Amino acid sequence: MTAQPTGTSLWIRQFHPAPDAATRLVCLPHAGGSASYFFPVSKALSPKVDVLAVQYPGRQDRRNEQCIDSIRDLADALVPELLPWTDKPIALFGHSMGATLGFEVALRLEQKGVIPVTLFASGRRAPSAHRDETVHQRDDEGLIAEVKSLSGTDSQLLGDDDILRMVLPAIRSDYKAAETYRFTSGPRLAAPIQAHVGTSDPKATVEEVRAWSEHTSGDFALHTYPGGHFYLNSEAPRVIASISETLSSPPS
């Protein structure tokens, strides 16, 4: 029997509890991101969907904890925190690094007999579409330049020395996790995968994102949008509508 969630986990943020929702959506942030990025998603989907946002160690209220710089280690740590929430059907949404983490989390959940309703993979090439990247090895200025070029963090925050001291270790750790991840061949997910990407994303081409189809034995869908790596910032209503429609549709 699955234990009932307590809502006290350091890993889970539930901004708009929706106890009557039929499905839960777990949102996994991008590199350097935090659970609060998904507050608008939670607000938009509640009370139809019970949205959980994941808070990684090393940022905001967890900034005094050691960061985890491995996707697999993050997944190993997160899955036990999610299992109590699997008393309802669960879906996963990850953006950028969060999509790769979502894939590894889905693999672990399926090994435990929990098949996610859908894995929504946003702004990230498929696990098998490897690139050699070493942004995490750059100096602070180089790392800041990369983040600014992707528009993933407010430039005003990056100009504040105190904020920088707090966020740079988490950003660097997350980049290391994403860039050192290597896909290992194994069983495909049973969960369907729905991929979303901006057509001018420098970190993931449409074809690299289309390769997510190789990682599921279920249905696959690809949605493209105008915009770059953080196309979500302008296209959120369309993405949220797609998620809502998918989660409200009966399983095929």
From TrEMBL:
Keywords: Hydrolase
Annotated family: Belongs to the thioesterase family.
Gene3D superfamilies, alphabetized: alpha/beta hydrolase
SUPFAM superfamilies: alpha/beta-Hydrolases
Keyword Hydrolase: yes
UniProt cross-references to SMART domains, sorted A to Z: PKS_TE
InterPro entries: AB_hydrolase_fold (IPR029058), TEII (IPR012223), TesA-like (IPR020802), Thioesterase (IPR001031)
The species this protein was found in: Streptomyces coffeae
Domain Thioesterase TesA-like: 26-247
Keyword Hydrolase among record annotations: yes
Protein's name in the database: Thioesterase
PANTHER family, A to Z: S-ACYL FATTY ACID SYNTHASE THIOESTERASE, MEDIUM CHAIN, THIOESTERASE
Top-level division of the source organism's lineage: Bacteria
